[in-house]
Amino acid sequence: MSVRAATPDDLDAVAALEEECLGADAWSRGLVEAGLAGDVPTVVYLVAEADGPDGPDGPAGDVVGHAVASIVADIAELQRIAVTPAARRGGHASALLDEVVGRSRAGGAERLLLEVREDNAGALAFYAARGFVEVDRRRRYYRDGATAVVLRRGLRKGC
């Protein structure tokens, strides 16, 4: 697999991933389009592509995941990370997260924050295995009323 900066040409793929993976909490096509166009200077969009040969996660070069991060001063926030179900457990989410961490550090961030649904045990385990710890909860954060668990990972020594 490979991870790269997303471009406006990725709009259809990223919008489809939003809908497929995030359902009612998906961002609108217009919001994704603005982000990919660079209209929000603190936001970084990344995509993960399937590498050849064609496999179960799709044809080589197909976008199978995306991540969105906001990096402002000493704080980065992972706003989105999603991988199509056919490509899950193939390392795409880890590669996307690693790229977010690297870009966040390069941008001067000292910590990375994110929210995850409290009922998403798989995501909670994924982040815990990568050094994230719970720092807060946001009641009724999602459209369906679910609680968000706020997670934090230090990016520099002493953070």
Short description:
This protein is an alpha+beta fold and 159 residues long. It has helices at 11-22, 29-36, 92-106, 121-128, and strands spanning 2-5, 43-49, 63-72, 75-83, 111-117, 133-138, 148-154.
Topology:
Elements: E1 2-5, H1 11-22, H2 29-36, E2 43-49, E3 63-72, E4 75-83, H3 92-106, E5 111-117, H4 121-128, E6 133-138, E7 148-154
Parallel strand pairs: 4-5
Antiparallel strand pairs: 1-2, 2-3, 3-4, 5-7, 6-7
The number of helical runs is: 4
Low-confidence blocks of residues: none
CATH classification class: Alpha Beta
Q: Residue share in helices? A: 25-40%
CATH topology: Aminopeptidase
Global structural class: alpha+beta
> What is the straight-line distance between the termini?
31 Å
Sheet of most strands: 7 strands, mixed
Could you report the average pLDDT, rounded to the nearest whole number? 91
Order of helices and strands: EHHEEEHEHEE
Q: Any idea what the CATH architecture is?
A: 3-Layer(aba) Sandwich
Strand line-up of the largest beta sheet:
1-2-3-4-5-7-6
- Count of discrete domains: 1
Q: Which shape, going by the Cα principal axes?
A: globular
CATH superfamily: Gcn5-related N-acetyltransferase (GNAT)
> What Rg do the Cα atoms give?
15 Å
How many β strands by DSSP?
A: 7
Measured by DSSP, the beta-strand proportion falls in 25-35%
